[in-house]
Please model this.
Amino acid sequence: MSAYLADVATLARKDLRLELRARSIVPAMLLFVVAALVVFHFALPSGSSDLAAKGMLWVAIVFTALLGLTRAFVAEREQRLLDGLLLAPCDRSAIWLAKAVAMLGFLAVAEIVALPAFGLFFSGIDGATVAGVALADLGICAVGTVLAAMAVAGRARELLLPLLFLPLAIPIVVGGVGASVADEPARYLGFLALYDAVFAIISWASFEYVVSE
Amino acid sequence: MSTSFRNNRVALAALLAAVLVPAAIAVVFFYAPVDEDGLNQKIFYFHVPIALTAYACFGWGAWKGLVHLWKGKPGADLESYVAIHLGVIFGAMTLITGSLWAKFRWGHWWLWSERQLVLFLVLFLFYSAYFMLRYSVEAGPQRANLCAVYSLFGVVLIPISFLAIRLANQYIHPIAFNRHGPQMAGSQFLTFCVCLAAMLALFAALYQFELAGKRLDARLRELRELLA
Amino acid sequence: MIAARGLGRTFGLRHVIRDLDLEVDRGSFLLLTGPNGSGKTTLLRLIAGLLVPTAGELEVRVSRERIGFLGHEPLVYRELTALENLDLYGRLYRVPERRERIGMLLERFGLWDARNQRADSFSRGMLQRLALCRTLLHDPELLVLDEPFSALDEDGAALLDRELAELRPAATFVVSTHDPARLEPLASQRLAFA
Model:
């Protein structure tokens, strides 16, 4: 168990270090999310409620995450670096966990900018929204990492990932928007936790099959 | 399993479907009591069995996917693919019959308050992406694995989406339309059962038929390879 | 140590390896020769465990952490330094006395001075040498090498010659090459791909 976690830590550290050096994913996500919020301002005609804006926040988050996920396994595939990890004695699921944790980090950084920006452009953010964002991030990264690995296995990978990801993101959006706008956010937060638990388990178990050729 | 035994399966399933589908049509139009909704109630007798059959297709596809991953049985990937393929077809039929029903009953081609319909829309998107995935990866062990894993994600998505849509309806709009549930009288229930049996038989027949055809294709390819 | 019976591998509809039987005993040196695209790389990847067979059986009686693989790609992260790359693999393979071993290998392959340079500043020859360090880092008992001499200049090739000669008695080798004459003296088994 501790060997497993050590592997996850090693791999996650590697991904974070790579991003720190290459700076390819996080700046793009930051810019995208702010640009998206600006677009949403122009997309909401006057008379649109506060609630509509809250909904748009979730659209921004999902598509920003998608942007980051598209880059998740690109180096691994292009330079065949995944081979190096597959040869190593570590559990294949550790690769998934490490990558998901790294993506979570990137997404969190983007949201640390996005949420205050949203507060600035539209309306305030309450605790339920933040909790919703945190829970949603877990689900997005868990599922998104597996799907990203699937997408890079084929041709047209940048086109494929959104198609695979968006249907699975619908429940996340429901949970998130519900937590933001409903009177009783607790049940939506509970739903997000359920989504996270269920999909984390099947992502963890199935990753090994996704990367074997 | 020898080819002749398999052919018998195809014939048997086809026979079953050939008997049940006309029976279902007959029962729906001549036996079932005419409701206050009139003709559009009849669509309902097809819509729900088709929807249930689509669920059965996706469930069967996921089961075969699991068999492929777990046991590594060589034919499982193809069986999973065919089941999901038919599931998408039945799913499209669900959307069409559902839309027709909505038009006849409420006057709109699409109703977001119809949870079943919305669920099928999400599933339709999901399983259509299955084909995009399948066609973008070269045939081989990895493609079979990816498709199997995806089919498992799908079957998990079904209840989760159902819950999500239910939750969404609470903040999107209050449930304005009050549809009457399946409190069916005896004769209605019988009609429903016959239709359900007919749709499942149709699935079985199409499944065996398409599977036989694809297996034949594979054998032909193998023989061509050997001769080359 | 390695046994293949009726081994086959297809990619889509292409048969790259068809009905191959093979036995490699412990301590052997199997030399693979043949033109590009004939299946050498595919066989090496199958043996290393990066591919699964689509037909037949392949038994490799060595656990994953005792296999050292060198492919066409060096499998090093460009934005990390040589030291960081080897440290990463050293941790994943749980190499004992990791730092010492990394230092020793970098020195043997003439990369000690470049140890803190990022891999994207390395020449092709240096990358290949770094890849060799990675391959040998965990003291493997089975070495699967795909054209190890490619991209190496004379000095690099001499280093590799020396390494191979030293490791020859302790490990089993499966090596593909475009220059069979060079490895001929070490080989105990040969397989020519058509």
Notes: Helices of chain B lie at 3-31, 39-71, 76-106, 115-136, 141-172, 186-227. The interface with chain C takes residues 138-141, 221, 225 of chain B (CB under 8 Å). Chain B has a mean pLDDT of 85. The longest helix of chain B spans residues 186-227.
